[in-house]
Each structure stands twice: as C-alpha cells, then as structure tokens.
Specification:
The complex is a heterodimer. Chain A is mainly β. Chain A has one helix at residues 2-21; strands spanning 24-28, 39-42, 50-56, 68-75, 86-96, 117-126, 147-157, 163-171, 181-186, 192-197, 211-213, 223-230, 235-249, 262-275, 289-296, 307-314, 319-320, 323-327, 337-342, 350-352, 355-357, 359-363. Helix content of chain A is 5%, strand content 43%. Classes of the chains: A mainly beta, B mainly beta.
C-alpha cells in the first residue's frame, strides 16, 4: 500500500513536471490555428534577400504574457503544388514594439523596441512540402514538412504589449527556391479612388493616366501611396486639395501646356515635390521615371471617410496628370497586425496594416 | 506550361491576345504594373485579396513582350511574357 501511494505520488509529480515543461503553442491570428487563411506571403530568404517585420497587437498575445517564447513557426499556404525546399540564412530579432500595428512606421528601425533580442541567427532549411490537393482553404497541418520552424537560441520573455517580430532572410547562394508561400491573413478593406481625368503629356497612354493612388493603402494607420510616371530625372509636384467645380485649362493660367492639360483642383492644401526616378532595370526605362509620395493616414476617426483630390504637375512638359479623387476607408483595420517588408539594405519598406503572416509561437 | 518568374511574382500560363493572364503575387505590394516594351503607357491593377489575379492582356500585337512588375527599389520584381496570337 505504501509502495502504491509512493508510486501514485511519483507519477503525479512527474505528470506535473511534464505539464509544466510542455510547450504552449499560440497561433496568431487564432482564426488561422487550424484553418488556411485567405492569403499568402513569401518567406524572407526563400528566394530573395528580404526583411519582414510583423507587428502584433497585444490582444493576440494575452495567452503568452509572462511566458518565455522558445520558437516561431511559419506554415505553408494551401495550394495544389509541391513547394521545393531550400536552405536559408535567417536573423530573427524580437522586441516589445514601441507602438501598435496601426501606429507602425515604414522605417524598420522605428518599430523595434528597446529590448531587441536576437533570438536566432543561422541557417535553416525550408522543407520540401507536398501539395495540398484540395487547394486554397483546405486545412494544412503544422507538421514538419509544412512548416519553417525557427528554434530560438536565446529565449524571449514576453511581458505584454505589442510585439515586433523582425526577420531578415537571405538565400544560400545557388540553392534558393522559386516559390514557397507561407500562410497569411488579409483583411479585405480599402478606400476608394475615382479618376477625374485632366491628364496630358507624353505618359499614360491615350488617356494620359500617368498617376495612381492605391485604394488599399487608404486606411487609417497606413501610408497612402501615390505614384506617377514622368521624364526620368525630372521633378514632379504632387498636389493635394479639393476638386474644382469645373476643369481649368492650364493655358488659361499662363502655362505653355499641351492640349488637354486641365487643373482639376479648386483648393490646394499641400504640395509635395518628388523626382521621377529611372528604374534600375534598363528594360523598364520605356515607362519613364517613377515618382512616389507616401502620406501618413492617422489612426483617428477624424479621417474615416475623408475625401481629397490629388493631381501631379510635371514641370518640363508643363503637364498635369489625371486627377484622382480618393476617400479613406470608413473604419480602421481590425486585423491587429501589420507587415513591413523590404530589402535588407534599405531603411524603409512597404507597410501593410491589413495583411500579415500566420505565425505560431512556442512558449514555456 | 511552367510558371514564369518566382521570388514573389510569377505568371501562370500563356498571355493570349484578347485574353487574360494569371499573375500571382507573393509580396505585400498592392498593385501589378504591365507595360509593352516600347510604350510609355503603364497599366496598373490592384492586387486582389487572394493575391491571385486574372489580368486583361493589353491590346497589343502578337509577339509583343509584356513587362510585368511589382515593387520598387531593390525589391523590384519583373517577369517578361510574350503575347501570343490566338
């Protein structure tokens, strides 16, 4: 009897130890724990040098507060396609971010917290992953052949608040894979863009549409993207304001402009100069130079549904672009995650506040 | 037909005149740019939520090479596709 009682106590103690040491796994966002999410994203270093920062709101991480994070995993997306494996070099840094996803910056350094910790640096192998015949939407197991697992050589204690997961990946020379897509979640929201016309000059085809605004960037907490094509090396003026009741021919304002150049702005709020930068790829020089302007959209109800008009002016042609009337989305994204992505040698990247990887954390 | 491209942008299948081309984008950019090799007209298409897009082939003669690209700077990705007569 005494032996039995001892056995029971030992067994119970061992079970308690095993329970205490059993890793906890938390998938962010939780909705993708067992389900294939609705988008996909490449993996840093799988096929190109890449830096990816995922900023995660505290609301996704409540189960991990006070825990020690010991590994991070990316799961492949569901597709009826074998993904070829490849080795890749990774540098992974974790930190308590100085702000949440909707306050994220397009500058990588600004999103890294003071306690940045290198949790992994070295070479890992993306597994060769079998096809998922049922295709998108089919569940994909968190099994070794579907997952890039990054075991932390330095554990990271999560104390709460927004988390910055910073991954810099580089392919191993001659061994990259062309297509290995990790699961990602996409919130299908955006603003609206309406083309008002008024363009002229040598770019934009017959309709002279040489300026663009990204509807999906017109989100509270995002950077609204405005771009235009023009003579390489020339300077563009990106003009923000409110549309005029009637188009105003530029020639009436004293400009030596080609026919069809109409000012579509009645009120001008802001002028932003931007150069038309030639593409580094010589084959793309026929497009002209590309000028880019980013406008921070604050995460504030004040801007929900706000409407402005943007039109470019190119000096050497004295030409106007097509004007774009645009409207910010009527609500902030609710994803609670952001993804900043760019080249490791560049200080800034492209920020999305409506798209992010599906991640699984392992914690003790 | 094997996909063309990779590393964040690829094109599946042929580009037939009057048809569409299937473009897959694996990065977080929100638009795809298409132009013919000699014109200053670039057409932009916003990337759909699923990141797999059926985009119209521009009205160009068979044999024209289309330049399909995403991103900018060092993260620019380009795929060349020939337009085929049906």
């Amino acid at each position: 009897m005494s032996m039995n009682r001892t056995s029971i106590l030992v067994t119970a103690s061992l079970a308690a130890v095993v329970h205490a040491q059993a890793p906890q796994r938390v998938v962010v966002p939780a909705s993708a724990a067992t389900a294939d999410a609705n988008s996909f994203e490449w993996v840093a270093g799988a096929s190109s040098p890449l830096r990816q920062q995922n900023l995660i709101a505290a609301s996704h991480l409540t189960a991990l507060v006070g825990r020690t994070l010991t590994a991070l995993e990316f799961r492949r997306t569901a597709a009826d396609e074998v993904y070829d494996g490849a080795p890749l070099s990774l540098l992974v840094t974790m930190s308590h971010a100085p702000h949440g996803p909707l306050e994220a910056h397009s500058n990588f350094a600004s999103n890294v917290g003071a306690n940045a910790t290198t949790v992994f640096q070295g070479t890992l192998t993306l597994p060769t992953s079998p096809a998922v015949p049922a295709g998108p939407g089919a569940p994909v197991a968190w099994s070794a052949n579907n997952v890039l697992r990054i075991p932390f050589t330095t554990p990271f204690v999560y104390n709460g608040g927004p988390l910055c997961v910073d991954v810099v990946g580089t392919p191993v020379a001659g061994q990259s894979t062309s297509w290995w897509m990790a699961d990602a979640v996409f919130e299908p929201i955006g603003g609206a863009v309406s083309d008002l016309g008024g363009g002229c000059g040598a770019y934009g085809g017959a309709q002279k549409r040489w300026s663009y605004a990204s509807a999906r960037s017109l989100l509270p907490g995002a950077y609204a993207h405005f771009e235009a094509y023009g003579p390489p090396g020339s300077l563009g003026l990106c003009v923000f304001g409110h549309r005029a009741p009637q188009p105003i021919p530029l020639s009436l304002l004293g400009f030596a402009s080609p026919a069809g150049c109409d000012l579509m702005l009645g009120v001008i709020d802001m002028l932003v100069p931007a150069p038309f930068v030639p593409d580094a790829n010589p084959g793309l020089l026929h497009r002209g130079g590309l000028a880019s302007v980013e406008l921070r959209v604050p995460n504030s109800a004040v801007v929900f549904g706000a409407t402005l008009t943007t039109q470019w002016f190119e000096w050497t042609q004295q030409a106007t672009s097509n004007a774009l009337e645009w409207t910010v989305a009527s609500a902030a994204p609710s994803l609670g995650m952001a993804l900043l992505e760019g080249h490791p040698q560049e200080p800034t990247g492209t920020l999305s506040v409506h798209l992010a990887h599906v991640l699984r954390f392992e914690a003790q | 037909m094997s996909p063309q491209g990779g590393g964040g942008l690829r094109v599946m299948g042929p580009a037939l005149q009057g048809g569409t081309i299937r473009v897959e984008v694996g990065t977080n950019v929100d638009s795809v740019e298409i132009s013919a090799g000699s014109s200053a007209e670039t057409i932009r298409h916003e990337v759909a939520p699923g990141k797999v897009n059926e985009l119209p082939v521009p009205p160009v003669p068979g044999g024209t090479i289309l330049w399909i690209s995403i991103g900018k700077g060092l993260n620019r990705k380009v795929v060349l596709v020939e337009v085929l007569a049906p």
